[in-house]
Amino acid sequence: MTVQPRILFAGNFHWNAGSSHTIAEYARVAHAAGCLVGVSAELARMDNQVPAHLPLVDDLRWGTHLVLIFEGRQFLTLRQLEQCERIPRHRRLVVDPDGHWGPFASLGADDNGSGHRHASWLSLYRRLADVVLQPKAEGTLPDGAEFFPYFGMPPAHRAADDAPPTDVMDYQLQYIGGNWWRWKALADVITAALAAQPPVTRMRVCGRWWDGATCPGHEEASRSQPGWLAEHGVRVERPVPFGQVVSEMSRSVASPVLARPLLARLGMLTPRMFETPASGSIPLITADLAFLATVYGDEAAQLTFGQRPGSLVERVLQDTVRYRQLTATIQRRLLSTFSHERVLGQLLKFLQ
User: How many CB atoms within 10 Å of residue 2?
Assistant: First the structure.
């Protein structure tokens, strides 16, 4: 490209959602990557908090390229769909982190329509762009899709092998994130932690919908068992403020890496897969995310729950030095291959 690209992003952005953090990181590294980054105020749907954290652009004509990010919702109105056409089609891309593009897929009550007809996603994407990008690290990409990790590795809060002694850390086990089809996975991890010898006693969960309240209209996805976490010795606290997720994670010896089961089945990457090692907390990988070895490396196998999940927690807490060294190796690998600057550079290669 002869002129510096000005990339406009549009999506359904919230202050406690992964995409908002990703776009903020893109903006931070844009100059180093050789581009400018903005968020379209005309097209994006945002809550009342996230605009303070993102580089808003009022005029669509500012952008040379438009990147549309679709997660659970089809956020564009008919008028906004027409506005998208002000950017030439060959300069528009769709990023599909939730796997809407491709064959219909379901797991229990969840499916990749996310409350919309699956066919409507295919029609929407075809209208908007010729190229669909997916962070699909496992399995075959659907026809018409290209691999793009989208989410990246934040700067490390600290090297994992330079963490404080475990007995002075605030928590032995902690999870930060909302309950979106993750209740069973978290409950299984807590059960494993209590089965360890000795049982884990300092545990915390931060996020929405972990203690009985549900997301209106999405009750099944956000269902939990009221009081269960407290009864099992887990502190439940409010979501972590924007930009503080990684530093808050660093307060715990270990943190499970959880994903919506359907996305795990599809082999999709998620923000927490990078934020967890960036914190320096030891990542505990659930069995359905074994494909993370493709990005973490061979060390991932030693951090993945097996047939006796409590044994992994035991080993991590009894031989923390070794598991911190494994995590530090993963940190270095991810920082060299999935920094936001490198990921944004990969996006530039798809732009014409």
Answer: 3
